[in-house]
Amino acid sequence: MRTLNIIGAGKLGRTLGRLWQERGVFRVGAICNSSVASADEAARFIGADHTGALPRACPAIAEMPAADYWLVGTGDSRIPAAARELGERLQGTNSTVFHCSGALGSTVLSPCRPAALASAHPVHSFATPEQSLRSLAGSTVALEGDEQAVGDLREAFSALECRTLELAGTDKPLYHAASVLACNYLTALLDLSLRAYAAAGIERHQALEMLGPIVTQTLANNLRLGPEAALTGPIARGDLETVAAHLSALETTDPTLLSCYRELGRACVELAGRRGLDREAAARLEQLLSEPNH
User: Fold this and answer.
1) Which residues of the chain have pLDDT under 50?
2) Which class in CATH covers the domain with range 3-171?
3) pTM above 0.90, yes or no
4) Which of 168, 170, 173, 230 is deepest in the core (most CB within 10 A)?
5) Which residues on adjacent β-strands are paired with residue 111?
6) Torsions phi, psi of 117, nearest 5?
7) What does the alpha-carbon distance between residue 277 and residue 283 come to, in Å, rounded to a whole number?
8) Residue 286: burial class (beta carbons within 10 Å; 0-12, 13-18, 19+)
9) Using CA atoms, how far apart are residues 121 and 142, in angstroms rounded to an integer?
10) Quick check: 277 and 238 in contact, CB under 8 A?
11) What are the residue ranges spanned by the domains of the chain?
12) Beta-ladder partners of 31
């Protein structure tokens, strides 16, 4: 079986390592984390291979054994340094090295040449490894890099029931920004909603109960119908009075909520215009949302 070493086995690294080992795609040979204790914990989560051996926890990249594949699963800012250390460890031996950053291309791994290089970014929220073990299937993985490495990783992720697409390295920052808007910013948006509910005197647990059905249905509508058809609410209706009331309430509540409401409201006006909102109503809403005294 092909061997895989993981540098930085956090939530993503340990999830992929365990799934690949369980499916017989790779045998995880060694792990190097920021501490040996953390590497030991990741090794126990990934579990033993077919021989009953756990992945080896290594204190440094230089002490990791040889492997066919190397996953650099560190945070983006640490990938260049990890690539330099790994390049010294590989010393020109043939292998495949890849990272899972959404924003960086495979060229950041150039110190590892002549290894085949790639990047593989799962469009998935690795909030907890336990949850991701059950929910990763069906996610899309964006691949980029050398043809051989991309082909091998396509097969590896297909074995986890993931879809794949290929990108140019130069397109990754914009692609990743799109993913952040839909995932991370959605989380921030829900937090803003909870803050507004709290200011209205609604308990957090009640607010979460209220949000669950409407957010779930809104997401389903967007995925099924597209944003233009899924948009509802006062801006979609051109309801100037309601939007003005919202702005007045937010102005005396929280400047961050007010600012976000205005910016997102203007995006909604543009979206509503695409679905047929009257131009005059759209212009009045745009003016209201842009006025500094609201």
Assistant:
1) none
2) alpha beta
3) no
4) 230
5) none
6) -120, 150
7) 10
8) middle
9) 5
10) yes
11) 3-171, 182-290
12) 6, 57
